[in-house]
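Thread title: Can someone regenerate the structure for this chain?

I was given the following input by a collaborator and told the matching C-alpha coordinates would be attached. They weren't. Posting the sequence so someone can regenerate them.
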Amino acid sequence: RVTALTDPGSELEIAAMARSQQQSADDTTRDGVLTAFATIGGQRAVVLSEDAAVLARTDGEVARRKRHRILTLASMTQSPIVLVLDGARERPPVFAENAGELAGRMSDPRLDIDLGRRRAPLVSVVCGEIVAWARDVVAVSDVVIATDAAVSFDSRGALPVDLLVTDDESALRAARSVLALIGPDGRGRDAARFAPSPLTGDV
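Best answer:
Regenerated them for you:
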Protein backbone atom coordinates (compact mmCIF):
# COMPACT_ATOMS: atom_id res chain seq x y z
CA ARG A 1 0.00 0.00 0.00
CA VAL A 2 2.77 2.46 0.87
CA THR A 3 4.62 1.61 -2.34
CA ALA A 4 1.46 2.30 -4.34
CA LEU A 5 0.87 5.58 -2.51
CA THR A 6 4.32 7.16 -2.55
CA ASP A 7 6.78 8.21 -5.25
CA PRO A 8 9.35 5.49 -6.09
CA GLY A 9 12.46 5.64 -3.92
CA SER A 10 11.21 8.53 -1.79
CA GLU A 11 10.34 6.66 1.39
CA LEU A 12 12.30 7.27 4.60
CA GLU A 13 10.87 4.84 7.13
CA ILE A 14 10.93 5.67 10.83
CA ALA A 15 11.37 2.81 13.36
CA ALA A 16 11.44 0.10 10.72
CA MET A 17 12.96 -2.43 13.15
CA ALA A 18 10.26 -2.06 15.78
CA ARG A 19 8.28 -5.07 16.96
CA SER A 20 5.90 -5.89 19.80
CA GLN A 21 7.18 -5.40 23.33
CA GLN A 22 5.64 -8.78 24.16
CA GLN A 23 8.33 -11.41 23.67
CA SER A 24 5.71 -14.15 23.31
CA ALA A 25 4.05 -12.41 20.36
CA ASP A 26 4.83 -14.02 17.00
CA ASP A 27 5.73 -12.19 13.78
CA THR A 28 5.06 -8.59 14.77
CA THR A 29 7.11 -6.72 12.17
CA ARG A 30 6.94 -2.94 12.81
CA ASP A 31 4.37 -3.79 15.50
CA GLY A 32 1.80 -3.51 12.76
CA VAL A 33 2.37 0.13 11.81
CA LEU A 34 4.64 1.56 9.10
CA THR A 35 5.61 5.20 9.62
CA ALA A 36 7.59 7.20 7.10
CA PHE A 37 8.41 10.47 5.42
CA ALA A 38 7.98 10.28 1.65
CA THR A 39 6.96 12.32 -1.34
CA ILE A 40 3.57 11.91 -2.98
CA GLY A 41 3.33 13.53 -6.38
CA GLY A 42 6.49 15.44 -5.53
CA GLN A 43 5.12 16.79 -2.24
CA ARG A 44 6.74 15.90 1.07
CA ALA A 45 4.29 14.05 3.31
CA VAL A 46 4.06 11.86 6.37
CA VAL A 47 2.61 8.39 5.82
CA LEU A 48 1.23 6.02 8.46
CA SER A 49 -0.04 2.63 7.32
CA GLU A 50 -1.55 -0.14 9.45
CA ASP A 51 -1.25 -3.91 8.97
CA ALA A 52 -4.39 -5.55 10.34
CA ALA A 53 -2.89 -9.04 10.52
CA VAL A 54 0.06 -7.94 12.68
CA LEU A 55 -2.06 -5.70 14.91
CA ALA A 56 -4.12 -8.78 15.80
CA ARG A 57 -1.00 -10.44 17.30
CA THR A 58 0.33 -7.66 19.54
CA ASP A 59 -0.67 -5.40 22.40
CA GLY A 60 0.03 -2.45 20.07
CA GLU A 61 1.93 -0.36 22.60
CA VAL A 62 5.00 0.09 20.40
CA ALA A 63 2.65 0.93 17.52
CA ARG A 64 1.02 3.61 19.67
CA ARG A 65 4.43 5.16 20.40
CA LYS A 66 5.24 5.08 16.68
CA ARG A 67 1.99 6.85 15.79
CA HIS A 68 2.64 9.56 18.36
CA ARG A 69 6.21 10.06 17.19
CA ILE A 70 5.48 10.35 13.45
CA LEU A 71 2.47 12.61 13.95
CA THR A 72 4.48 14.84 16.26
CA LEU A 73 7.15 15.08 13.54
CA ALA A 74 4.44 15.88 11.00
CA SER A 75 3.24 18.74 13.21
CA MET A 76 6.78 20.05 13.72
CA THR A 77 7.52 20.03 9.98
CA GLN A 78 4.00 21.12 8.93
CA SER A 79 3.85 18.15 6.58
CA PRO A 80 0.65 16.80 5.01
CA ILE A 81 -0.43 13.49 6.56
CA VAL A 82 -1.85 10.45 4.81
CA LEU A 83 -3.16 7.68 7.07
CA VAL A 84 -3.90 4.22 5.68
CA LEU A 85 -6.17 2.72 8.33
CA ASP A 86 -6.87 -0.99 8.71
CA GLY A 87 -7.30 -2.04 12.33
CA ALA A 88 -7.15 -5.54 13.76
CA ARG A 89 -10.24 -7.59 12.90
CA GLU A 90 -9.63 -10.06 15.70
CA ARG A 91 -9.25 -9.45 19.42
CA PRO A 92 -5.50 -9.37 20.27
CA PRO A 93 -4.24 -12.08 22.63
CA VAL A 94 -4.12 -11.31 26.34
CA PHE A 95 -0.59 -10.84 27.65
CA ALA A 96 0.58 -10.74 31.25
CA GLU A 97 0.23 -7.18 32.55
CA ASN A 98 3.94 -6.89 33.41
CA ALA A 99 5.30 -8.63 30.32
CA GLY A 100 6.43 -5.34 28.73
CA GLU A 101 7.96 -2.07 29.86
CA LEU A 102 5.23 0.05 28.28
CA ALA A 103 1.71 0.37 29.65
CA GLY A 104 0.48 -2.78 27.93
CA ARG A 105 -3.13 -3.71 27.56
CA MET A 106 -4.18 -1.42 30.40
CA SER A 107 -3.25 1.76 28.50
CA ASP A 108 -5.59 4.29 26.94
CA PRO A 109 -5.94 3.26 23.28
CA ARG A 110 -6.70 6.78 22.09
CA LEU A 111 -4.19 8.96 20.33
CA ASP A 112 -2.46 11.39 22.69
CA ILE A 113 -1.78 14.16 20.17
CA ASP A 114 -4.09 16.98 19.07
CA LEU A 115 -4.39 16.81 15.29
CA GLY A 116 -6.89 19.64 15.36
CA ARG A 117 -3.94 22.06 15.74
CA ARG A 118 -2.19 20.92 12.57
CA ARG A 119 -1.49 23.39 9.75
CA ALA A 120 -1.29 20.94 6.85
CA PRO A 121 -3.87 18.62 5.25
CA LEU A 122 -4.86 15.28 6.77
CA VAL A 123 -6.16 12.58 4.41
CA SER A 124 -7.48 9.30 5.84
CA VAL A 125 -7.68 6.23 3.64
CA VAL A 126 -9.88 3.63 5.33
CA CYS A 127 -9.25 0.12 4.00
CA GLY A 128 -10.78 -1.97 6.79
CA GLU A 129 -12.24 -1.78 10.25
CA ILE A 130 -11.22 1.22 12.36
CA VAL A 131 -11.13 1.17 16.13
CA ALA A 132 -10.34 3.40 19.12
CA TRP A 133 -7.95 6.23 18.19
CA ALA A 134 -8.63 5.96 14.44
CA ARG A 135 -12.27 6.97 14.82
CA ASP A 136 -11.22 10.27 16.39
CA VAL A 137 -8.68 10.90 13.64
CA VAL A 138 -11.15 10.22 10.85
CA ALA A 139 -13.54 12.70 12.44
CA VAL A 140 -11.02 15.55 12.08
CA SER A 141 -9.65 14.54 8.67
CA ASP A 142 -9.92 16.97 5.77
CA VAL A 143 -10.76 14.17 3.34
CA VAL A 144 -11.86 10.60 4.08
CA ILE A 145 -11.51 7.96 1.38
CA ALA A 146 -13.00 4.53 2.08
CA THR A 147 -13.24 1.22 0.27
CA ASP A 148 -16.38 -0.87 -0.05
CA ALA A 149 -14.80 -3.35 2.38
CA ALA A 150 -14.27 -0.63 4.99
CA VAL A 151 -17.87 0.53 4.75
CA SER A 152 -19.06 -3.05 5.23
CA PHE A 153 -17.55 -2.97 8.75
CA ASP A 154 -19.41 0.25 9.57
CA SER A 155 -22.72 -1.23 10.71
CA ARG A 156 -23.78 2.00 12.44
CA GLY A 157 -23.15 4.21 9.41
CA ALA A 158 -20.87 6.46 11.45
CA LEU A 159 -17.98 6.62 8.98
CA PRO A 160 -17.86 10.13 7.38
CA VAL A 161 -16.88 9.15 3.84
CA ASP A 162 -16.06 11.79 1.23
CA LEU A 163 -14.93 9.40 -1.51
CA LEU A 164 -16.13 5.79 -1.76
CA VAL A 165 -14.07 3.48 -3.98
CA THR A 166 -14.08 -0.22 -4.75
CA ASP A 167 -10.67 -1.38 -3.55
CA ASP A 168 -7.31 -0.48 -2.00
CA GLU A 169 -5.67 0.38 -5.31
CA SER A 170 -8.41 2.86 -6.18
CA ALA A 171 -8.26 4.36 -2.67
CA LEU A 172 -4.52 4.97 -2.83
CA ARG A 173 -4.78 6.43 -6.31
CA ALA A 174 -7.51 8.76 -5.06
CA ALA A 175 -5.33 9.82 -2.12
CA ARG A 176 -2.55 10.84 -4.51
CA SER A 177 -5.02 12.85 -6.57
CA VAL A 178 -6.55 14.56 -3.53
CA LEU A 179 -3.18 15.58 -2.13
CA ALA A 180 -2.13 16.99 -5.50
CA LEU A 181 -5.38 18.94 -5.71
CA ILE A 182 -5.41 20.52 -2.24
CA GLY A 183 -1.66 21.17 -2.04
CA PRO A 184 0.75 20.97 0.91
CA ASP A 185 -1.01 23.69 2.92
CA GLY A 186 -4.59 22.81 2.04
CA ARG A 187 -5.16 25.98 0.00
CA GLY A 188 -5.05 24.36 -3.42
CA ARG A 189 -2.44 23.32 -5.90
CA ASP A 190 -1.69 26.86 -7.10
CA ALA A 191 -1.91 28.57 -3.70
CA ALA A 192 1.74 29.68 -3.80
CA ARG A 193 1.00 31.90 -6.80
CA PHE A 194 -1.47 33.92 -4.72
CA ALA A 195 0.40 33.98 -1.40
CA PRO A 196 1.17 37.43 0.11
CA SER A 197 4.60 38.84 -0.62
CA PRO A 198 6.92 38.32 2.39
CA LEU A 199 8.09 41.94 2.01
CA THR A 200 5.02 43.97 1.09
CA GLY A 201 2.08 41.74 1.99
CA ASP A 202 0.69 42.34 -1.53
CA VAL A 203 -1.02 39.46 -3.32
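The helical segments are 2-5, 52-55, 61-77, 133-139, 148-153, 168-182.
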